[in-house]
Write a structure and sequence with these properties.
With 125 residues, the chain is of the alpha/beta class. It has a single domain, classed as Response regulator (Rossmann fold), CATH 3.40.50. The chain is built from five helices and five strands. The chain has a five-stranded parallel beta sheet with strand order 2-1-3-4-5, sandwiched between helices. α4 links the parallel β4 and β5. The longest helix has 18 residues. The protein is globular and about 35 Å long.
Length: 125
């Protein structure tokens, strides 16, 4: 299985660090950013395969952040308390590939990463 580079963008440090532990426990690389601006600085050099991000960030909203990260990441997944149809529509318009509602389980995150790693293995020569 391919090792994914996963950028986690979440302003609640406990949640961000917990998700990073989940990601690392599955054998992937994880980098945590606690603000959108940190993510904008980290993404070009890190070149994440996947971004797991909150929408309700204090410095820049996740929809704007997603549009700015689109060139640096293969997949962007929102994990947010914003769950209305309008919010999900905004996520799609911003280039977010999948919008998950909080709380999200470890099994859900790890299953998604396993599927993305499998998909990348299939597309690699």
């Amino acid at each position: 299985m391919k090792t994914l580079r996963v950028l986690i963008v979440e302003d609640y440090r406990d949640i961000a660090d917990m998700v990073a532990l989940w990601v690392k426990s599955a054998g992937h690389d994880a980098r945590v950013c606690y603000t959108g601006f940190q993510a904008l600085q980290a993404a070009p050099a890190y070149r994440p395969d996947v971004v797991l991000m909150d929408i309700g960030l204090p410095d820049i909203d996740g929809w704007e952040l997603a549009s700015l990260l689109r060139e640096s990441a293969s997949k962007i997944i929102a994990i947010s308390a914003y769950q209305s149809l309008k919010d999900r529509r905004k996520s799609k318009e911003a280039g977010i590939d999948l919008h998950l509602g909080k709380p999200v389980s470890m099994n859900m995150v790890l299953s998604l990463l396993a599927q993305l790693a499998s998909d990348q293995n299939k597309s690699s020569p």
